[in-house]
Amino acid sequence: MEILHHLAIGFGTALSAVNLLYALIGVLLGTLIGVLPGIGPVATIAMLLPTTYALEPVSALIMLAGIYYGAQYGGSTTAVLVNMPGESSSVVTCLDGYQMARKGQAGAALAIAALGSFFAGTCATVLVAGVSLPLSALALKFGPAEYFSLMVLGLIGAVVLAHGSLVKAIGMIVLGLLLGIVGTDVNSGVERFTFGIPELSDGIGVVVVAMGLFGFAEIILNLESTEKREVIKTKLKGLWLSKSELREAAPAVLRGTALGSMLGVLPGGGAMLSSFASYTLEKKLAKDPSQFGKGAIRGVAGPESANNAGAQTSFIPLLTLGIPENAVMAMMVGAMTIHNIQPGPQVMTSNPQLFWGLIASMWVGNLMLVVLNLPLIGIWIKLLTVPYRILYPAILLFCGIGVYTVNNTSFDVMQTAFFGALGVLFAKLECEPAPLLLGFVLGPMMEENLRRALLLSRGDASVFATRPISAGLLVAAILLVLIIAVPNIRRRREEAFQEA
Amino acid sequence: MPAIRNPKDFCAGALFIAIGIATILLGTRYALGSAARMGPGYFPRILGVLLIVLGGILAVRALRIRGPRIAALRWRPTLIVLGSVVLFGALVRPVGVALSTVILIVAASAASHEFRPREAFVAGVLLAAMAVGVFVVGLQLQLPIWPWQA
Question: What pTM does this model have?
Fold first, then answer.
């Protein structure tokens, strides 16, 4: 049983006092930002990255990972009690969770959200551990051509499953790739697109880009809307489930876990997609779909399990292939790079403590969340009553200190402000920032693999089509684009028809 | 001249095209090399061309398919938020964490339509104490606390 040996290494690392502490900090912070609307995991990870320089890489990654799945727990609290998504992945939880709260079942809704998440987290952790070995073994056989095609598929997949215009999203990827190669070219030593600014010769920092696009821009856009946030306090009676509620919810938890685990692995997947898909599935399967939206416990149990499962399994492509599939994983790539770890299949063999320690910590973190979350709900509700006019300057402060301390220069702060302005512009034009961030972290890797693949083939571009794995990956990418493009064409025809 | 029916897509397309052209123009300084021996200019040029093509598709489509208007930018929150952070970045070394935090919090708070100066000042002082405690004392970041330590 090789896997038991690996898990032993993992738990040995994850259960050390230091790593337990960082897992705890991570999940608590994650819950906090999950509860608070207006700040997401990407901006939070960007904020905290600079403080992890001094840590062991494994402790840093354990903490940052905890933020992502911790946010899934926290998001449901706000959704149920305030009818507002604390996190984008708990949007659907509002639908039935809040209705349950109005009927006096807030305790049951929160309990099933937490227990479902824990069950899903446990299953997903086992899945991550089980799938990682064969996948990394496969990935180790990849040459540069395969890697390049895999990145193309990963990037295309990431935008196909996202909403909005496909052409725009691909454009944002290309923009990201371009930003990613700013700085000194490793092969020729030439400084590219640095405009003679010495600070740019090392490239643009991932913290700068993410914090500007996801942190600053979000705050500005929130400030633009004048509507007031109302905190409706619902009385919480007993945080437990009746037997009949449990019986009703259990199948939804199972389905949500399975669906979320699968969708989490797909490029572009992760917590948000999983929760939406699970809600749709539950509604389709229900004997009486009219109950949905009126406080159906399945409408909470399914999506809440799915988003946690999806958050966790989205680590699989990152850990085994080195390919981030959503913006949070792009931040994890940034974190690994900062600690001089090249993400990819070799991490498992070259750094087993880190690899298995991170996986084991996910289960430990989930356990902490389920134990801590319910008793701490009172504190989270109090925090929700802090008005946004006090909250956002505090967030700005943490962002400011975080970004300043990366290199101790005010130039980085100015760059971040520039990306903040860019983020506002993108939002006005409905251009999603997540594909840009993915392209940004993959830019240098993609160029390097393209260069190597064509060097080996002596400049013959057909190498991408003649190597079977590479060809298969590219065909999959093209198919994805076609699938999404066809209904687009159909819809557009209809629109044109209506105009005529 | 056909009318622009989807201003968001049209502007996004124009932006992509402009960046694509700028990339190619700036990139002419970097050696192109060949496919087998790529110079530093090769990959950027591919990206530049891609951006122009994608931007072109967007812009042309925006002439045919109707879409929503671009929401007006509210300058006040944008300028105040970004300006106050840039100010913080410029001040934190010469003035120290304590004072620059108070300045940042009060300045940034003015971006909200619910701005209350006194409350912002109190929040600023409290957050300054916390920032010093967490970042300078706790995490040992090499930052001055007071102006005379800078």
Answer: 0.89
